[in-house]
From TrEMBL:
Keywords of the record: FAD, Flavoprotein
InterPro entries tied to this protein: FAD-bd_oxidored_4_C, FAD-bd_PCMH, FAD-bd_PCMH-like_sf, FAD-bd_PCMH_sub1, FAD-bd_PCMH_sub2, FAD-linked_Oxase-like_C, FAD-oxidored/transferase_4, Oxid_FAD_bind_N
Claim: Flavoprotein is one of the keywords in the record: yes
Start and end residues of each FAD-binding PCMH-type domain: 43-224
Similarity section: Belongs to the FAD-binding oxidoreductase/transferase type 4 family.
Protein name: FAD-binding oxidoreductase
Organism expressing this protein natively: Falsiroseomonas selenitidurans
Bilayer-spanning residue ranges: none
Flavoprotein found in the keyword field: yes
Amino acid sequence: MPDTSATPSPGLIEALGNLLGPRGLLTAPEDLAPHLSDWRALYRGATPCVVRPADTAELAAAVKLCAAAGVAMVPQGGNTSMVGGAVPDETGRQVVVSLARLNRIRALDPVDLTMTAEAGVVLKAAQVAAAEAGCLFPLSLGAEGTATIGGVLSTNAGGNTTVRYGNARELMLGLEVVLPDGQVWDGLRRLRKDNTGYALRHLFVGAEGTLGFITAAVLRMYPRPRDTALAFCAVADEDSALALFRRFRDRDESAVRAFEYMSGTGVDFCLRHIEGVTLPVSTRADHYVLVDLASPRPDAALRDMAEALLAEAMEAGEVLDAVLAESEAQAQKLWKIREEHPEAQKREGASVKNDVSVPVSRVPEMIRRCSEALVRMIPGSRPVPFGHIGDGNIHMNLEQPPGMDAGAFLARSHDIMDCVNDIVREMDGSFSAEHGIGRLKTDMMPAWRGGAELDAMQRIKAALDPWGLMNPGKVFPAGGNHRA
């Protein structure tokens, strides 16, 4: 009977090496290092080896070896998790399984508007492949040059275009999955309608690798945009940002591809730390928004619509200043201000990140209440709210006070998260909108998802992974993802 506390033995590592070959197994410390720490450097784990299968069959065989030995496995894609979801723990007993070599696009059909991509395909590569076929794969986020298809599905990533196209889940039609015992489930169906019992594919999306390895997916594409418009706006306050969103949504909801809010503090950090970033409007403000419009219709006249709505908003006092991109290069520069927020905060100093969501109508209230409460808690700290105001998801981040010791500030991380979460909970929101639970937020699950909901999740986990070998220590609170 497997023992989930088993340490990978020399015999297991040798067997994995024989199965996968020299490219498929990493054991040298310098090769292991990039796989042991998360992007935010919150956690650093240990492992005796990194498994790198070349295809689904190799992965299934490797999983069978690990399962028979009772050795836990940690799936890893681009390792861009914000919550420590893809790194091993410190015991050295967990094997990291990198899907990076499963990086082929197996099929692309511009009639069906589907792409079948393996888990290791980088998100940017999927976008490019769709564009080369005259289509659009719309999932877009700051880490798209590193994040992989398997990772964004395992975390149900959101990103910038959720307001128009939904999260990763809405862009997935079918999956191929290696289960914790090494069985392969082939659910790569390109069907829009398939009402045949439980929709198993949805169990694995958002499960953060705790139920199995996503190895490939059928993804939805869309007709490519033929008319676009992008505006960067200085707005009077949070309510004005929401009012502007409503103007665009009410005029043509299908044209709003992204609608992003940024605080003046966050934009100032980008101006200070990110090369090539300049303020595109003449008015410096405490609040900004980025409005991204797109349509497959070449005659959509989106620029005319944007100019008219911005003029109305200026007359109403909602917009203080605005600029419309005149070229694709300028559009990329405007988007850079928004996309570089995480990096700019990192360079400014220590920050605590809160990925929360509330009903769209309550976003301005949430930003104000959380900002005021955080500054009361830690005088001199700097709230840096930014994100997807159009779908209610704001990254309610807090930057350390100037001059404060970074370690002392980060020691208050859970106090800061609790402060934000208490307010968000009062507003019927969520403590994890798009980043997931990972290792960072497992202790919050009982309070937020306890009772019947958490019990059902644990029963599903026990049914598919009775020995707790898949990404242990993630998603479930301590003691909640062990053997049944």
